[in-house]
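Morning - calcium ion inputs below, output right after.
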Amino acid sequence: MYVCMKVRISTIQVSLMLILSMAILPGCTEIRFKDNNIQNEEQYNTTKISVASFNIKIFGKTKASNDTVMASLVEIVSKYDIIAIQEIKDIDQEVPYEFLELLNNNSSIQFEMLLSERSGSQEDDRSSQEQYAILYNPELISVMDNGTLFNDSVNDSFQREPFLAHLSVKNTTLDFVLGVIHTKPAAAEDEIAALIDVFNWSAEYYDDEDVMIVGDYNADCSYFDEEDIFELEIGSAEFLWAIPNEADTNLASSNCTYDRMVLTGDIIDNFNGTWGVDNTFSEKSISDHWPVWIELVIRID
Ligand SMILES: [Ca+2]
Ligand SMILES: [Ca+2]
Ligand SMILES: [Ca+2]
Ligand SMILES: [Ca+2]
């Protein structure tokens, strides 16, 4: 008699381990998680949540008046338990509420929303202000803090200051800070480097080492050399870039990994190695980016 191999999922070696374990243990399809590498009988139930990031290009009144596009957006967004949205551009700040209503009228899940103020605090940022939204399934997710824009008044590190909220996964001990950023393409190198300040500030302010910052980093192609990630502080071993360099996140024929999800803290161990790019649509009227997503697996209390 054998038991399913217990695998602590935290590195990219996971896929190989999974393949090996399945080859060695035929018929063993259930993977359980444990706190350490000592094999024992203790097993427990887990819950799995999906977290996504989506730059919805120029999400404003024009897009909101297009029923076909809105229906597609509802279909895409409703797939995820948490989704962080960038590029909401409505000076009257009505579009995100209209979208939430449409989403909930067409989904079995009643999503809730955290909405930022219009980012872009300093005078030179004002020309491209956007709001961020975090939509989440309240059956699975609790909000510990409704969120705030990162205060970059000293260095003006960002054209659109990241939005940060504190969330927890219900019936588990996992709480974490979720940040969302849309970098200025021409300043992507500097803004990505400056995210270390946001990670550090978040961990301290929320007293939580588990921080994930997702969004349109513009972290590839002409804006950023992804081969240099390891030279960044957020490219060190304490951080996990869950969307790897080979991912193609833009609809254009170029292969660019603009959209990223970067984790630090013990939440890295909750990432089960499963990530994706939702490239199920090809209409640029929806966006020029595809959503990116990851799965987290969390022990139930
Ligand atoms: Ca700024
Ligand atoms: Ca935590
Ligand atoms: Ca790439
Ligand atoms: Ca592409």
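Note: Residues 188-205 form the longest helix (18 residues).

O.
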